Amino acid sequence: MPVPDRSTFENIYASQPPWEIGRPQRAFLDVADRIAGSVLDAGCGTGENALFFASRGQKVMGIDFLAEPINRAKQKAAERGLTVTFLVMDALALKQLPEVFDSVIDSGLFHVFSDDDRRRYIDGLASVLKPGGRLFLLCFSDEEPGEQGPRRVSRKEIEDAFAQGWAIEAIEPTRFEVRPDLKDFTFSKGGPKAWFVVVRRAG
What we know:
The protein is of the alpha/beta class. The chain has one domain: 3-Layer(aba) Sandwich (Rossmann fold). It has six helices and seven strands; from the N terminus they run ααβαβαββαβαββ. The protein has helices spanning about 5-15, 25-30, 50-55, 65-80, 115-130, 155-160; strands at about 40, 60-65, 85-90, 100-105, 130-140, 165-175, 195-200. The model has no long low-confidence stretch (mean pLDDT about 90).
């Protein structure tokens, strides 16, 4: 399955993306109390997850490599009276961020990377997470059939990716919630099968 490029995502955001459900993914809501302190939302899209944690009084930064979703996220923040720092930034450049966070959330970013970019991304995550901080990650599972949507990820790939410098606390099967009116994609009934992963930065 080819790795999607910038134009792929620009085309998706020209309309309403499948994952734009108008609220955070259920997987993050279920563990919200564990996502403590300052939060970085890597690949934040139009900001629903970031805005949710800001509404809980947390300091939040959201990054995305496209301007369109960041503009929409800023508009939502203004409409809701919430303070979030939204930046147009490539998640492969996390080492350039001058601050560190207590928690990082990743809703559907990890699974878009090639193997090499995945390693760069995880190295960057280590540079922006405080020692003992946690990454909460939602990605497509290899148990989701078909070819539509992003690259599938196996449990072993997750274990291998975080084998050094990290402690995996949980890898749980779950689902991505998608828009109920989807016409161009066919996923498993109940939503695409996914993994929800909690990883602690060692140190």
